[in-house]
User: What shape does this take?
Amino acid sequence: MMLDLIGSAALTLAQAVGPDAALAAADAAATAVATGAAKAVPMVLDSGAVGAGGQGVLHFIGQSDMVGKSLFVFLMLMSLASWYLILAKGLTHLRIRRRSRKFLSEFWAASSLEQVENEISTHGAEEPFAHLASHAIHAQRHHTRYGALKLEESGSTAAFVTRTIRKVIDEETARLENGLTVLASVGSTAPFVGLFGTVWGVYHALLSISMTDGVTINRIAGPVGEALIMTGLGLAVAIPAVLAYNAFVRVNRVYLAQLDAFAHDLFTFLTTGQQVTDGSHERNGRTISLASHRGA
Assistant: This one.
């Protein structure tokens, strides 16, 4: 269609200005068409190159040896492990926080520790605060009733309750920190695994290029660029693991601080002579009840 328009324009011009001018116009039109076609060819080639670039990862893995393929599989396994831990621990933290908030609300609203123990027996100790309260109350009752029957129960009631509380806190700390070592290891090693894959790929690419004649920048840029993909994969695996590790460490630190504060209050209730059937006790001439600490 473009050629028809150019031809009709040249014919009109020839009728208007004469044959010589018409020939000049025709030459100019032909030059313009050739220039446009020449510009269109690189655009087509570039678009084809972009399409081929989308398959750079698969092409690089396909051309790699066993070391390159093994590194790629190792990075994929590290990514799957880190994302599994991120999702699993994230859901676990949300569930524990919701249950802990509910238990603390019921604990500070209770009239006595006996009521708290009944609630734990009914609903179970499904989160760290209830677990701590259950073991501490049981330890206080057991030592008060039977005394030190075993070596681990030696000492006063307060000392035995303190050891029980510390043991439970250590157990909950280990449970909350489970899996963080994997995230830390992935975040610290994945970039180096990817870098090693890049170095290995560049080495083999340069070896193959050196065995061919007529080396140009196009023959070097492709293999080297594909080798750099491994470094990008290593960073893509490491960054989510590092961010998740830092987030979980902070959440655990805040949660354990709250658990430690609750343990201190619980120890006070258990060792100041309060009767579990009575919701209050005398301390420094004042009556203290569990309900009075609801907002603590």
About this structure: The two ends are 84 Å apart (CA to CA).
